[in-house]
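Margin note from the TA: students keep mixing up input and output lines. Inputs are the sequences; the output is the structure of the whole complex. Example:
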Amino acid sequence: MRPAAIVLVGWGAWLAALAGILWIWTGSELAPVLLSGAAAGAALIGLYVQLRSHGEPGRRRVTDSSVAVLALAAGIALGLVGLTAGPWLILVGAEVAVFGIGLAVRELRAERRAAMR
Amino acid sequence: MTPATAAVPVNGALGWLASTDHKRTAARLLVTSFAFFLVGGAFALVMRSELAQPGLQIVSTDTYNELFTMHGSTMIYLVITPLALALGVYLVPLQVGASEIAAPRLTLLGYWLLASGGLTMYGGFLTDHGAGRAGWTAYYPLSGGGATPGVGMDMWILGVILAVAGSTLLAATILATIVGLRAPGMTMLRLPVFTWTMLITALMVVVSFPVLVTAMGLLFADRHLGGVFSSPGGPIAYQHLFWFYGHPVVYVMFFPFLGAVAEVTATFSRRRFFGYRPLVLSLLASAGLSMSVWAHHMFATGQVANEYFALTSHALIVPAGLEYLALIGTMVGGSILLRTPMLFAVGFMLLFLIGGLSGVMVASPPLDYHETDSYFVVAHFHYTLFAGSLFGAFAAVYYWFPKWTGTFLREGLGRLHFALLFVGANLTFFPMFFLGIDGMPRRVADYPPDAGFTSLNGLSTAGAFVIAAGIAVFIVNVLVSLRRRSPAGADPWEGHTLEWWAASPPERHNFRSLPPITSYAPLLDRREEPATRPATEGVGAR
């Protein structure tokens, strides 16, 4: 097993043990469910680390800047604030977010092209 | 070294704002969180001024409610947590020998969500009912639509959702970097102590922060649609969801600074870190325990398993003691150099100890019944978060500033900053223990003139202004040091970890080469055996 996965799964098991004691100790369900969920989350991340493909670390192409992310963040924020300001702002936020996603697709395609050269 | 690809090149200010370089993202995060710190600190000064004497002199009770809510929210959601994550975003890729952070776009998105969350939260001040005013915990039913109507409270909730979601993304990319982008030779048991603290911090964030996002979503729904938390047991369910985030976040605001202090202590004691493996184990143990203590904030409700949560809370003493032992053991026998970073590190150890020991008291249900919702609790968490975490943060800033900027901060101004902050913090927060024991409740704008609280409140207010003077000295120090630069070089402190191998400030992709990594302190290894360890070109290209 990969050392990083051992750490994550081991930590998840530690949380699971604490959750197990809480299940025995308490009459309510919400508290142990929360802790058990965290344990499962940590273990799942560990499992993902264990199972993901590990070829030799290749060269990564990384972008220097991403306006797409700015647009996406603005879209999400505007859309969320629209919940108090009204549907018009939700629509504006959605448009900006879609624009951001489009830009991100463009950036990723450009990166892929550059990586193939 | 991996070349960068600017798929859609952007220059100028927009290019800087949209930069995916982890160092620039971290710099933006540091500057943003410090700006919020100044605003949150100004709120604290207004509150302390109001409390200097009995009676209402400066603000109304409604405004006071907004101030303490926004002060707490700012410091937790927008200052200390982001500051801790900013250190990770900057330093973790450098410490593990990576040329970039994993998923730089997600890191950038995390920053912008967090920043827009802050602006949204503050936007509440522009609304009719004012900003959020139900405390940073927003307990239900106080935070419900009936008790706290208005758009400002809604904007506070949405701001928290954005800020916490942003923090989660930042932590996820730090975790992915540690797990997936370590340089050859950088095994898990060769991770620097700071990186270990960031690993457990990121783990805690990704499993606990989404719960708060959910809780805030449900609270928003309750305010507009009703029926979520209004059923019997609803308010307790809200408290469980909130504190399942709310206690782990205390450790999220502690571990990274503990890691920074550990690095500072080893470097300025001129010796290898004492008890590395037991420390790593104790960090993992305490991170797990700190996920299972949240309901000690709910002892007084009588609705939780007090015995279990008191037991886990007290059990935390064991790994915490080991962590302190490791720090002290590193200093014992070392050749200690008391430069400003080390002063702040020692300040962190002393003051966090007071916060920790008072925490032992409130972890005991019978004592907690007396202290809950009193100024004792305010003193306790300010000793952990201000006197502890912030001293750790300043240790980190003074230590890594030469790496970030290529120049030292001024030593004399640093010492003055430390002295003012140390005196100010104790003068402000120590009297609060006695106020709490004597029965002064928290979150009040006024108190009776004959309650016997006036002198201690006066001291506390004076201390707050000493802290403000200390922060002013820090700002002057940064400005003077950046204007009249004192060049630092790549490794001015004779550091132990890989970030000191990179140039100051580091290049776009961090390293041109890496030294062999045979322990968690590769640069110290290299200094101890310089003739036998040639540098290996290009091993950092991942």
